[in-house]
Amino acid sequence: MKIPSSSSFTLQGGDASFENRQKALFNGLSQAERACNVIQPVSDYPDLAVEHFRRPPPPGKRRRTETRQFKGQESIFKRPELPSPFADKNIPDYLRNPHKWAKYSLADISNEDMSDMNNTQAALSFLNGLRARRLKEHAINMEIEESPTISKVTFKKPWGGGPRALVIQDEKEKPVFRGSKIVLPEYVIGQRTMKKGRKEKPLEKFDRNKQLKLQHLEEEEDQ
């Protein structure tokens, strides 16, 4: 706070001695103020100027303003370049998997050996070797088929009857009433019973002479 000077603040009233003391007091205060440098101009404190008291920008905007000075310059932090997934497809398989391939060299073969006549002879010899191998295999198969020691294995359909014997039940074996008890026929566990089929009755032959003749009734109805 600025202390008022003797010219700006005065007390009215009193005699001449009071006014002199008042002036002497304010003069002493002004001298003490200049000696202690209590009051300094605003230009000595630029940070306290009114124009510097502003609301700080938000975090995102502050970051943009801080990095604006580096705009257009090459960054020292670069993303590592990953290998392209299509790069391996351009590499042939004999370079990616050399263990799957066999390398042949024609350095020890002369030009005469690679002529058409020599190639034809090599192809014919290869075919003759295959033909001889097939004939040999066919002869071995014929010997195996004709040898009597080797017996063929035959497969038969299994019979599902089992060792159980069939027991034919007699029609006479029926429950019998003896005294005050009913005696049932004997039954063996594990044996199946087979019932006899009914006998077909023979057709009876009729004598045509003994048959009744009713043709005269039909004649009467027609009349």
Walk me through what this model shows.
The protein has 5 helices and 4 strands. The model is unreliable at 165-169 (pLDDT under 50). 0% of the residues are buried. It is elongated. The N and C termini lie far apart (165 Å). With 223 residues, the chain is mostly helical. Helices cover 33% and strands 5% of the residues. β2 (176-178) and β3 (181-183) form a beta hairpin. Strands 1-4 form a two-stranded parallel ribbon. A two-stranded antiparallel ribbon has the order 2-3. The protein has helices at residues 16-36, 59-67, 93-96, 116-146, 215-222, and strands spanning 166-168, 176-178, 181-183, 192-194. The chain has a domain at 110-144.
Tell me about the biggest sheet?
2 strands, parallel
- Structural class estimated from helices and strands: mainly alpha
Question: Which segments are poorly predicted (pLDDT under 50) over 5 or more consecutive residues?
Answer: 165-169
Helix count, DSSP H or I runs of 4 or more residues:
5
Compute the CA-based radius of gyration: 68 Å
Instruction: Determine the N-to-C terminus distance.
Output: 165 Å
- Proportion of helical residues: 25-40%
Average pLDDT reading: 72
Morphology? elongated
Percent range for β-strand residues: 5-15%
Strand count: 4
How do the SSEs run, as a string of H and E? Answer: HHHHEEEEH
Strand order of the largest sheet: 1-4
Biased composition (Basic and acidic residues): 200-210
Keywords: Cytoplasm, mRNA processing, mRNA splicing, Nucleus, Spliceosome
Protein name: U5 small nuclear ribonucleoprotein TSSC4
Family: Belongs to the TSSC4 family.
